[in-house]
């Protein structure tokens, strides 16, 4: 009945009516299934016909998870849904050595665009402390680390107490700035971001997966869904702990076997996500690069990696 009443409405009233219908459907499904992400998938598929369609992108993966692009969600509605649940969000970043120069811009732009109005804490792993003014409800926890420590070692140790302070966790690269809204549409049990270099015309056999069978990150040429970046990823804290632990343990196994995956933790991340599918895939809007021209299908750049001299900022140089 609700669907037919929406179709009968004038176009000028249609979208606001759909938004209301979306919220009502969400609450019905949430009380039934108790899983907001599962409900959103169903709502997304049911509500999609009532919103203007984008014909230039895929909005659903082949395992029926949302593939999030500008124009495939209502930001007001989805923020309202999640704010009812009042989730606590942790953001883990590393600002070690010369990378501390990127911290101020990351935090200040995050204050303008990242989950605005939500309870967000930045966990900054650094070998020096920086003071940055934050918006209401935002917190910074500075975690001193020796610059020689591997990030996996540090995160696994710290996650044990972060787990009592947050519901969702994002891992992000500090050498990035936010340019536009990065909202609750990004939240799910496990969210991965399509790598900007391989999302459009690259066949799976050309993805830069680890192709050496000796590595624990090995993926055969005939397998693969997408290639994901390791610069932004997030999800439920428990699921993120499993993923970080997996990357750590597989990297350690490779080290014992005197091999390193071609793209280090990103290679292990892609191996994990091939067999443990993300519940939400975010388009390259959720991590672009200032090095690259923005194509027509990227309607908005939400966060982007900065242009920098890698040889100068990285202890071991390189890109």
TrEMBL record:
GO molecular function: hexosyltransferase activity; metal ion binding
Transmembrane segments annotated in the record for this chain: none
Listed GO biological process terms: carbohydrate metabolic process
Subcellular location: Membrane
Alphabetical list of InterPro entries matching this protein: Glyco_trans_6, Nucleotide-diphossugar_trans
Membrane topology per record: Single-pass type II membrane protein
GO cellular component: Golgi apparatus; membrane; vesicle
Positions with a binding annotation for Mn(2+): 173, 175
Name this polypeptide is given: Globoside alpha-1,3-N-acetylgalactosaminyltransferase 1
